[in-house]
Specification:
Blueprint: H1 2-46, E1 50-55, E2 63-69, E3 72-76
């Protein structure tokens, strides 16, 4: 009886940990895609030829949207 209870606890903990890690990965990917779409939408709205979303490890400027027009690079602010 005690062995079955310990196995049930182990399986439950494994499920919770796996679910938490998977949810964290999905949330990170979703945030990246929403920033990328916002950057491309802003570039298209303002009439830029192309657009690049740069990500950095810095907490201050984690995402930077660059609009490119005639070899000029303009940094766009995302709200």
């Amino acid at each position: 009886m005690k062995i079955a209870f310990n196995k049930a606890i182990a399986v439950t903990l494994l499920f919770v940990i796996t679910s938490t890690l998977l949810l964290n990965i999905l949330m990170t990917e979703y945030t990246g895609w929403t920033k990328k779409l916002a950057c491309y939408d802003k570039c298209q709205t303002l009439g830029f030829e192309s657009c690049v979303l740069k990500t950095s490890k810095s907490d201050i400027h984690q995402h930077q949207c660059n609009g490119i027009n005639n070899n000029d690079i303009i940094v766009l602010v995302l709200n």
